[in-house]
Write the structure tokens for this entry.
Amino acid sequence: MVKSLSKRAVFLVAGFALAMAAMDCGAEAPAPTERVVTVPVEVERVVEVERVVTVEVPVERVVEVERVVEVTPDATAAPDATAAAPAGPAIYKMGLFEDPISRNTWNYLGGPAGSVWTGYVIGGYHTSLYGYSPQRFDWVPAVADGLPTPLAKETVDGTEFWTTEVSIKQGVEWSDGEPLTADDFVFTLSTVRELSLGSNWASLVHPAFVDRAEALDEHRLKIYFKSTDDEGNAQTPGLSIWQFGLAFMPILPEHYWAPVVEDARQAGEVPQQIEALFAHVPDGEPTANGLEYGQWEPGAFFENSTVPDYYGQGTQVTEYANGAYEATNERLGYTETYYGDPTGDTVLELEIGPHFESEIFSIYGNQDSAILALTKGDIDFLFNPLGLEKGFLDRVRQTADLQVVENLDNGVFYLGFNTRKPPMNNQAFRQAVATVIDKEFVTRTILQDTAIPMYAMVPEGNAFWYNNETAKIGQGLGRGERIAAAVELLKDAGFTYEKEPEVSEDGAFVVNGGEGLRMPDGTEVPELELIAPSAGYDPLRSTFAIWIERWLNDLGIPTKARLIGFNLIVEKLFSETVDKDLDMWILGWGFTIFPNYLENIFHSRHSPELEEGGVNWGGYANPEFDELAAGLLSETTIEGAREKALQMQALLAEDLPYVTLFTTPKIDVFRPVKVEYPYTTVLGGMAQAQGLQHVVLIK
């Protein structure tokens, strides 16, 4: 069968696979330091198609944005790729800095297993209705058979819904040979709804909008969205809810998980049921994306194996310079064509794998050990979501058979506040903290330009959605000016000092730190704890933590930085006592391209005390922001969604539930004599594309 779309209406193409992972991501658009190669990579593409596929009202025409992203492949000379390699099984050898937390997908997307390291090792297990094309992020079917029907109003038993229908390709099978059907999608969605799973599940299956799904037959789905909110107000499931939400929900096998879910329901109340589901070890779980679990020795390695007779293996994908996309799968007997006629120059051609027998993720515990293993030849690709300080970067560049590729990243490292507790619940306090943090000094002087200061919650590299006009508190001020401005902010808000900070005459440094700082109610500011990853795990964030500790104590805010393991921080944030024990923390996020994560992180409904697994760990609650976030969820046009996202970024930069700190050039390192990739230029880097596990060739 052949599916094609000609150019008549407008359709947004954007995105990244799953919603988010609590990560050590790197982030953002660096000033190139090496030879600059300009490669046309469409980060946010608007392409024309025959019909608007997901909303009743046609998506409004938007100006086509062809994003040209400057990337800087390192000039390190690679060895002759034709050099002979030892005979033996094809194994993709990769390195991690940290153990995954779990291989349970329910836990990964809804619980404390939601770390980037977990995502790297189990990301090859999942499929969804729709996904993204390689490199270019075209919105294309995964297991869906063609595009969905436009949303339409329908009344069922006196209740009005928005509905859409989707077909599933025939011949798609789980790794155990069972067919993947509409019932698997219905089961997954129903389980998320019935257990009110939070975090990324709540972003993918938004409880305020998604009602249910029905299997019309084995290969046809009907999805129901609520047409009114809890107060009876009319609402429309926008791009965040359907196209870039539910359409990307991982589909899990009902025949494996249904008995597990039923057992979990016997565990007591809903929180205990969720805990039991998250605790399940999925031995023998069938997968649907070409890879399956092999073995795991914590602290040593994690291994996946290739699924025999994977239905997607051998799919030929071609992307054309005119915007067209074509995929041919002879095994299932289809050719799909989208976004124009597949003619003219091609920009990418590849065959979907996996093209190896197994993959091994060696676990090293810190960057130093991982870099050493890479330079010695023990691994051929390094997952590095953290950025590389200059010393590490110099080491890999001096290794003759390694190649370094630099991309723009799509994430942020940040300082978070527990806004439930004083003084963190005071906006002036948060602004004072932001004022004394000299991001430019740390990134440029201390970290020697291995990181880039950041002031907005959408990275600059995601240019269509990025707001360059947000407040940049403290930018350009000297040390004395920062202290003076921060003291004024605190005093204007009712804070008092026994002794204010004393700055040198030239304003270059603090002679004596502030003493006896009291909150507006007269209570003395207690010693605050700042938790951040250790230096062995991430020297960039640990460096920021140490300097922030110093600057806050200079201001008279007693602060102690505690550097601990990344997984320990994640465990603490998902703790039931997060509201009592947490003061401030430093972590990172890796983002989707469509910025619905702004709602998922900061809307008050996603606080852990209100939503199981919610990632609004700081308990941020701002009615003005909540209203903007709710508006984003209902936006069905690109420009409307963009305007909401710009406003949300501006508000966050003033109110500061997070102080965005920095991003890094996305640096990927691999050994080209052993591995070959069809492309290395991609927003977010090769690591955020999961090491290109489904297309890499082992030589």
Observations:
- The first strand starts at residue 2 and ends at 3.
- Residues 1-86 have pLDDT under 50 and may be disordered.
- Residues 125 and 289 are 5 Å apart (CA to CA).
- The first helix runs from residue 105 to 110.
